[in-house]
Every structure is written in C-alpha cells, then in structure tokens.
Amino acid sequence: MKIEEVKSTTKTQRINAHSHVKGLGLNDDGTAQASAAGLVGQLQAREAAGYIVDLIRSKKMSGRAILFAGPPGTGKTAISLAIAQELGSKVPFCPMVGSEVYSSEIKKTEVLMENFRRAIGLRIKEVKEVYEGEVTELTPVETENPMGGYGKTISHVIIGLKTAKGTKQLKLDPSIYETLQKERVESGDVIYIEANSGAVKRQGRSDTYATEFDLEAEEYVPLPKGDVHKKKEVIQDVTLHDLDVANAQPQGGQDVMSMMSQLMKPKKTEITGTEDVVSPHGIPRDLLDRLIIVRTKPYGIDQVVQIIKIRAQTEGIHIEAEGLKELSTIAERSSLRYAVRLLTPSSVLSQQNGRDVVEPEDIREAADLFMDAKTSAQMLADNPDQFMK
Ligand SMILES: Nc1ncnc2c1ncn2[C@@H]1O[C@H](COP(=O)(O)OP(=O)(O)OP(=O)(O)O)[C@@H](O)[C@H]1O
Ligand SMILES: [Mg+2]
C-alpha cells in the first residue's frame, strides 16, 4: 500500500526580467495607478488586464483568448505575468517561449498540447478520514529479520499526534515510515495521515516553534483544532498535465507489447498551413476573430526612467539621476529591454572601478562591451557576405 500524491509540475522561477512585477497595481474601481505593484504607466492595457482577471475569476473566460499587441519592450509579457500574480498560484500559469516549440524530436502540436494541459487546472475536493496533529513522537520499532539473516527490520512505527483538543498514539505500518522519511517529518511538524491509504502529508512546522532560529524558509502552521481522528476536506489543485504524468508513471505489470503498440500509434494531430492566406499577427484569421486584443504603447522617457529605477531596486543596484538618464537615452536609442539588461554589467564594472554607485561612464563601458540587438542586426545587414546565411 503506497499512495503517492500528484506533485504539481509547475516550472520553477529564478530572478528574471520581470521579478519586480507583483501585480497589476489597480485601484478598487479598476483604474490603474500611475506606478504600483512594480508596473509603471501603460494604464489602459493594465485596466483591460484587470477586466480579464475579473472574467477569469468569474469563470467567464473559458473558450476565449487574449492577444497583447504592441512594440517590443512595451510590457506585454510583464502585464501577462501581472495577471498571473493577481490570479494567485492556484490558477495555473504556464509561460513558454517560441523556441520551445521547435524541435526535431517532438511535434509542434504535441508541445503546444502539453502546454495547454499544463495551463488547465482542476480543483479536487474530497472528504477524507484523517489523523491530523503535531508530531510529538516518532519511534520506529525494530524486530529481528523474520527472513532470518542479519540486520533488523522495522515492524511498525509509533507516532504521537497532538491537537488543541487532545493527543493520540498510533501504530503504523512500516510502509508509512518510508513516506514519513521521504517527507522529512520530524517531531514538531504538523502532518495528516489518510486513514484509508496511509498517505502522509506534511503541512508545515507547528507555530509553537516559530521563534526557533531557522535558516531555512519554513512554513509555520497553527496547531490543528478538533480531534486527532476526524473527517477533513482535502483540496488539491492539479493541472491536466499533472494527471497525465501521474497516469503515465509505470504501475508495474504492464506488458511490453501493449507499451510498444502505444508507442507505435500514429499521432493524428497535425496542422498544415496554406501558403496564400494572410495571417495578421501570425495568427489565422478565424482564431484572430475570437480573440480579445489588448494594445500596449511605447513609453515616454519619464516612464522609462521609472521602470529602470524599479529594476535597479529589485536587483539591489545603486544608481542616481545621471546614471538613469544615460540608461534612458540608451533605451530610447535601442530598447528598454537592452537598457534594463545593461544594469547588471554596469554595476559589476562600477564595482571594479571601485564605486558603489553606477555612473554614466560604467554604463557607457558596458554598452561598448555588449551590443544591443538592433546594432547587431544592422551589422549583419551591412556585411552580409561575412556571415553565414
Ligand atoms: N509598465 C511597465 N512597468 C514596469 N516594468 C515594465 C513595464 N513594461 C515593461 N517592463 C519591463 O521591461 C522589460 C521589457 O518588457 P516586456 O518583456 O514585458 O516587453 P514585451 O512587450 O513582452 O516585449 P516583446 O515584444 O519583445 O516580447 C521587462 O523587464 C519588463 O518587466
Ligand atoms: Mg514578451
């Protein structure tokens, strides 16, 4: 008896180009604040995005899609991420980039299908009989190996659970001990054990221990109320892709032939394009007709300065008026993204030059070292015979 919980497969996020974006920054009436939640300007698009959030929350968005249209670096991706932030982590958000779709091994439609399934969430509600509480004791009881030979095996585990109302001591099957170890359950953790399956879920550390010095980020949870043995509503948020993964895991006993025939099955989905149809935005006409289009517009210089300033703050880089001015001229000349990208190298250079504030000369030095896309593309166009076609 071993029941595993379906683990969500959301991709992990590092500090990235949009880490400063925390939400849409809207007022209660739905209008956008000039600068809030990491976003600056682009008021109309943000307001429109607010309505989209409402539509999704009120479950009126299914079967619809949104297209953000506007020049590069005008915040299309940033606003999409803000929508995801507003919706919270329970609504799956699946970012992908164009290059993920191009592979000689997997069909484009397959990649897209997987991503769609990653983006469709299900909430599973179940009433389960559980034992829940703070672990007060966790003792594996050993016995001589019944098969003979050396060593001992664990015959059962004694676990003590405490709630605000009472305590209980349970004698558990050794298979549960493995799960307890896998989840790294220790005394002082709040857990629940499903009575039917024996599945263990560690909910966090009991907040009685919240003051203890702890370097690792821990989630503290209150001591459960009620009895140790009770009925509990368990809510699990998974995506269709999570279920696919769970179902695809070998359960043992499957014969090779049926596996083979599954592998050999021809894949039927294939979209073929027609050459002479013009597709605005690179999207077929009939799909485009079904989209809501949100427009983003180029930024004014003041907004560019503000955005760069916010980025510098998020990256912990000290920069003052002159530096910001230099970067915003660069943003105007090439792109906002390039200017934002120059922040880190400029700060490294300023440190090398023995400063802790990024000065215009550091920025110029960085801009000399790292070319922007426009200049690079221009160089290619000017000297076509020197490069590979
Ligand atoms: N209104 C804004 N407020 C704060 N930061 C912004 C704003 N708009 C863009 N940014 C930041 O500027 C950078 C470029 O923006 P973003 O990547 O969203 O542009 P995009 O419209 O998606 O461009 P592309 O068409 O090239 O994909 C990102 O780091 C983004 O977080
Ligand atoms: Mg983008």
Automatic annotation (TrEMBL):
SUPFAM superfamilies: P-loop containing nucleoside triphosphate hydrolases. Its EC number is 3.6.4.12. One of its GO terms (biological process) is regulation of canonical Wnt signaling pathway. GO terms for cellular component: histone acetyltransferase complex; nucleus. It catalyses: ATP + H2O = ADP + phosphate + H(+). Belongs to the RuvB family. Proposed core component of the chromatin remodeling Ino80 complex which is involved in transcriptional regulation, DNA replication and probably DNA repair. This is RuvB-like helicase. It comes from Armadillidium nasatum. The lineage of its organism: Eukaryota, Metazoa, Ecdysozoa, Arthropoda, Crustacea.
